Amino acid sequence: TQKQVALKVMHHRLADRPDIVERFRHEAMALSSIRHENVVNVENAGLTDDGHVFIAMDLLNGKNLREVLESGKRLDLKEALRLVSEVAEGVAAAHDIKVIHRDLKPENIFCMTGGPAKVLDLGTAKFAGNNAPTTQTAFGKVIGTTAYIAPERLEGEPGDERCDIYALGLVLYECIAGFHPLAPTGKWPSAAEIASRQVTYNPRPIPGLPHDIWSIIARAIQKRPDRRYHSMREFRAAIGAIIAQTTPVEPRPKYKRHRSVWFGLSLPIVAGILVGSSSAGIAFRQQLLHAKE
């Protein structure tokens, strides 16, 4: 049986970088371990005949959240809450099998046309627990995108599931306010200054936002992890309670949306490739996913 998939292929110039190849393999391992409607599904992974590393994933129709936010389309309050609730469901499924995303951001959240939100890119994921493989941090640098990294990780702690709660809290803030809380003017400072603000700066409440919704965001983005929600499911339940309310939610003020520059590694995706269960890459799946650590 054949189906259309999105094919994520590592550029040949990166193939001789063991750290990048390991990250790519790591993403395939993480995604293939999770089966949830809010996480993109891996169909296959391996090597092509000419030696290119690839991951074949569900072909998604829509845009990532960053593209949505920068397109000029505003998310209304309930839409923002629904989207983040769906993402929380997907990430909670990852947490159930001890996978921590570590790079939640709008670029890694896909807004399906007429479908649920999908979590993308687990190349930086960490497998928690005894004897579980982890992605190593090289040269003292923290893996992830600085604007969404939890303070404890920037201070050298390994972090746990609450790092993802922090990042998703920032995403929810950005969806509602129209700007990132660490750059309310839309002008980004240096990466070092962003990291400093993550540790020291307390984001201001969003003007006009109902207190019960602000309290959810404020708890999710607490600097100390023990003051955040204890689990992603608890965070999702708090959002769900707001969504379930029948009383109208107060309208929020309009903000001018700013275009931002983001830091991170991206790999090309070629969509619309037809593969089937007899694909030549299948023979290499075990080689890629179960290579010795």
What does the model show?
There is one protein chain. By secondary structure, this protein is of the alpha+beta class. The strands form three sheets. Strands 2-3-1-9 form a four-stranded antiparallel beta sheet. Helix 7 runs antiparallel to helix 8. The longest helix has 20 residues. The C terminus is likely disordered.
Structural class: alpha+beta
The first-to-last residue Cα distance is 33 Å
User: What topology, given as strand order, has the largest sheet?
Assistant: 2-3-1-9
**How would you spell out the order of helices and strands?**
EHEEEHHEEEEHHHHHEH
Number of extended strands? 9
Q: Provide a count of the helices.
A: 9
β-strand amount: 5-15%
Mean pLDDT: 77
Helix coverage percent of residues?
Answer: 25-40%
Major β-sheet annotation:
4 strands, antiparallel
Please supply descriptive tags for the structure shown above.
293 residues, alpha+beta, four-stranded antiparallel β-sheet, three-stranded antiparallel β-sheet, 9 helices, 34% helix, globular, disordered C terminus
Describe, in short, the structure shown:
This protein has 293 residues and is an alpha+beta fold. The chain contains 9 helices and 9 strands. The protein has helices at residues 18-32, 65-70, 77-96, 151-154, 161-177, 191-200, 211-220, 232-243, 285-289, and strands at 2-9, 42-47, 53-58, 62-64, 99-100, 109-112, 118-119, 126-127, 269-276.
